[in-house]
């Protein structure tokens, strides 16, 4: 059922179009991250990167921008409405894409990628707000599930799209493609989406409201704990994306076929999202989270031993990396849900802060691990193990704290 009445009249979008629009807002980030993977060696070489591992910064800079912006776009959209903030972010994304295409140095590329990510934080935040404005309860969950099903197609296909562009054009056209995608979604939203936040429901944009999300998220020990754990395990995904091209093409020499193998590994992530929706009702968030962390630890420990003795042929790497992402597929969604659970009516502000923190923290950890890459898989495997162990330690402590709080006073709703 609708949660609030839009500012003008009911949105002209039907449910299917709305789901596709939300999925597009979510998918623009996956497209921007994964489409450039095949071109990283050429970009680094042409733009004067001094070290082979420097190419990883093209990925990390985008993620840092994405994380840094989210806490800002939440309060902005609550103050000025969803559509203006969405349009601003997408236009900034499009403009930064053109700058990236015209880059003449590696430093300009990194700066433009950061601004791309900063702009793309708007559709990520506003898409969630649009769903919360229009739907509640089961209907909200249904819409998000449908959007995620559409969204999951993009990380699988994006590297192949980038590889296809390289076959017929220079790497600069990848950013022209992103420019077109940003403008297309901005136009779609401008002409087809109705504003969902009425003037009466808007809050003033000031320091108090900007810091509200930080205050409520950081003060609650349960939310704070799960947020820290999520930041740790998000590094597992960042390390994989940062090193995928180097491992597949430089270590294993698979050439252009790496995009197909990347897609196979991405399918593990999609399978986890599907399985998680089926298993949650039976086992619950806490048990599923512990099991996924223990599974990730076991896989990473085995991988570390095999990497240390350098016995990881390509099929085994695909299996081990895929299983790590399968475990992450459970953890990303469930840790976020556990972090949000105590937030009650502060959910909107807290969600933006949790998204910002986990993205920045996970990117920092993942980038630090990826920078240790030396042609072997030791740093990757050991890094995953350390991230998983850290996440489990934080989760166990947080769950003990949550039980103590529940015995003292009921959690706010």
How would you characterize the overall build of this protein?
The structure is a single chain. Helix 4 runs antiparallel to helix 5 and helix 13 packs antiparallel against helix 14. The N terminus is likely disordered. This protein has 14 helices and no strands. It is globular, with a radius of gyration of 21 Å. It is 80% helix and 0% strand. The protein is mainly α. The protein folds into two domains: 200 residues, MFS general substrate transporter like domains (Growth Hormone, Chain: A); 197 residues, Growth Hormone, Chain: A (Up-down Bundle).
Number of domains: 2
Structural class: mainly alpha
CATH architecture of the largest domain: Up-down Bundle
Number of helices: 14
CATH superfamily of the largest domain: MFS general substrate transporter like domains
Looking at how many chains there are and whether they match, the oligomeric state comes to single chain
Low-confidence stretches: 1-10
From the alpha carbons, calculate the radius of gyration and give it in angstroms. 21 Å
Largest sheet: none
Overall shape: globular
Distance between the termini: 20 Å
Instruction: Provide the helix percentage.
Output: over 70%
What value does the average pLDDT take? 87
Run of helices and strands = HHHHHHHHHHHHHH
Strand content: under 5%
Q: How many strands appear in the DSSP assignment?
A: 0
CATH topology (fold) name of the largest domain: Growth Hormone, Chain: A
Pfam family, one: MFS_1
Subcellular location: Cell inner membrane; Cell membrane
GO molecular function, one term: xenobiotic transmembrane transporter activity
Family: Belongs to the major facilitator superfamily. Bcr/CmlA family.
């Amino acid at each position: 059922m609708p949660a609030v009445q839009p500012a003008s009249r009911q949105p002209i979008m039907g449910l299917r179009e709305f789901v596709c629009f939300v999925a597009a807002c979510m998918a623009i980030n996956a497209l921007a991250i994964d489409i450039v993977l095949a071109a990283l060696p050429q970009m680094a070489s042409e733009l004067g990167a001094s070290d082979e591992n420097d190419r990883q910064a093209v990925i990390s800079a985008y993620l840092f921008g994405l994380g840094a912006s989210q806490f800002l776009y939440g309060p902005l959209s609550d103050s000025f409405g969803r559509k203006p903030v969405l349009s601003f972010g997408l236009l900034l994304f499009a403009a930064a894409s053109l700058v990236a295409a015209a880059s003449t140095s590696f430093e300009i590329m990194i700066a433009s990628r950061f601004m791309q990510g900063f702009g793309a934080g708007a559709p990520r935040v506003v898409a969630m707000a649009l769903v919360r404005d229009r739907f509640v309860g089961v209907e909200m969950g249904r819409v998000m599930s449908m959007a995620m099903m559409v969204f999951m197609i993009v990380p699988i296909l994006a590297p192949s799209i980038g590889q296809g562009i390289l076959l017929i054009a220079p790497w600069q056209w990848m950013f022209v493609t992103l420019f077109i995608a940003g403008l297309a979604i901005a136009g779609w939203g401008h002409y087809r989406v109705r504003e969902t936040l009425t003037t009466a429901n808007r809050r003033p944009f000031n320091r108090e409201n900007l810091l509200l999300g930080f205050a409520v998220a950081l003060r609650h020990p349960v939310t704070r704990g799960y947020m820290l754990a999520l930041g740790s395990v998000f590094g597992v995904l960042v390390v994989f994306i940062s090193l995928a091209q180097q491992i597949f093409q430089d270590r294993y020499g698979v050439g252009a076929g790496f995009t197909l193998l990347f897609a196979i590994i991405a399918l593990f992530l999609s399978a986890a999202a599907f399985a998680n929706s089926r298993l949650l009702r039976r086992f619950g968030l806490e048990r599923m989270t512990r099991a996924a962390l223990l599974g990730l630890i076991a896989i990473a420990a085995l991988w570390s031993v095999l990497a240390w003795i350098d016995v990881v042929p390509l099929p085994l790497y695909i299996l081990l990396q895929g299983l790590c992402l399968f475990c992450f597929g459970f953890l990303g969604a469930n840790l976020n849900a556990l972090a949000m659970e105590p937030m009650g009516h502060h959910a909107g502000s807290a969600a933006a802060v949790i998204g910002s923190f986990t993205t920045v923290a996970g990117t920092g950890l993942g980038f630090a691990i990826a920078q240790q890459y030396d042609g072997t898989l030791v740093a990757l495997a050991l890094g995953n193990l350390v991230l998983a162990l850290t996440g489990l330690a934080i989760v166990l402590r947080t769950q003990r704290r949550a039980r103590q709080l529940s015995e003292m006073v009921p959690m706010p709703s």
